[in-house]
Write a structure and sequence with these properties.
By secondary structure, the chain is mostly helical. 49% of the residues lie in helices and 0% in strands. Helix 1 runs antiparallel to helix 5 and helix 2 crosses helix 3.
């Protein structure tokens, strides 16, 4: 058999059990006894059945545990918003924020001049310090 990049046994950056555990713990913060929503209320708001939600909140190693389908997870995240989505995505080093109505997602880096390289954090700090010193000088004149 010819070797291919997909035949290699590379380890994923985020394991299946880790992401499932993050989804489970995030759900438990928002759904259930003492939380803001019951599974039934979340079902009515998202279309994800209460049975699916209950099974996704079981211990990951339980024989009754069932992971949410991708579209179910997205529906729950859309309803619960950025606090829920951030908790799930935190294991990938990512976070979420709520977009304003009809706001397009912002690109990672905004630059007025695409040919100009992006400013490094150190350069930005130095530039802001200089601007601050100039502003202080203006005020003290």
């Amino acid at each position: 058999m010819a070797s291919s990049p997909t035949a290699a046994n590379f380890e994923l950056l985020v394991s299946r059990n880790l992401i499932r555990e993050r989804v489970r713990t995030a759900l438990k913060l928002f759904v259930g006894r003492g939380c803001r929503y019951t599974a039934k209320e979340l079902w009515q708001a998202t279309g994800v059945t209460d049975t699916s939600l209950d099974k996704a909140m079981l211990a990951v190693d339980s024989p009754d545990y069932r992971a949410l389908k991708l579209e179910e997870l997205a529906s729950v995240a859309k309803f619960l918003g950025a606090p829920f989505a951030s908790r799930v995505m935190e294991c990938a080093g990512l976070g979420a924020f709520d977009l304003m109505d009809e706001q397009p997602p912002l690109p990672r880096v905004l630059s007025a001049d695409a040919a100009k390289p992006a400013e490094t954090p150190r350069e930005k700090v130095e530039r802001l310090q200089q601007e601050l010193f100039k502003a202080v000088e203006e005020l003290t004149k």
